Amino acid sequence: MKHTALVLTLLALAACSNPLDTARYTIDPEPAAKSLPNRLGQAELREVSLPQYASGQEITWKDADGALRSTPKEIWADDPPRAVTLALAREISAVSGATVIAEPWPLSGGPDRRIEVRVEQFLATDKGAVRLAGSYYVSPVMGAGGDTVRRFDISVPLAGAGAGAIAQAQSQALAQLASQIAALR
Q1: What are the pLDDT digits (tens) for 88-104?
Q2: What's the predicted TM-score (pTM) here?
Q3: Of 9, 67, 69, 165, which sees the most CB atoms within 10 A?
Q4: For residues 76 and 57, is the Cβ–Cβ distance under 8 A?
């Protein structure tokens, strides 16, 4: 009897959800071509710190009234901090030839440097652009070299409306940030 009730409940829930009602988007910058010298060597990228609204599953945008909005029908395909961290590590490596790996460090020899990125803003604004702003820090793990502290404020115009355009612009903003970190500027 309990088994039948459970099966009926699960069937009722399944009937209520339509996978076509929810769209999932990825953070996936275009593959970068190596264009910068390797200034980082082997570097561990700590998980990128995102604001709460950018850490959630729903894609967020800013309305003209200043409110941040989202809908459960347009969500990220992966956990945003994880996706941003992996995409940024991949892009820094590709553009510079450095070996940048998201934490925890999996190799037997330790990294030369640690990179930490703290994002203050990462959303589509009411001005028709995605804004990515915050700070990044590069510090040597052992040995010579000083710390690098840089602020960034990147704006990428939206090439259309909707979550797909937001995802594309956010991916482009991350590619620009990767170039800035790789160049240490």
Answers
A1: 999 999 999 999 999 99
A2: 0.86
A3: 165
A4: yes
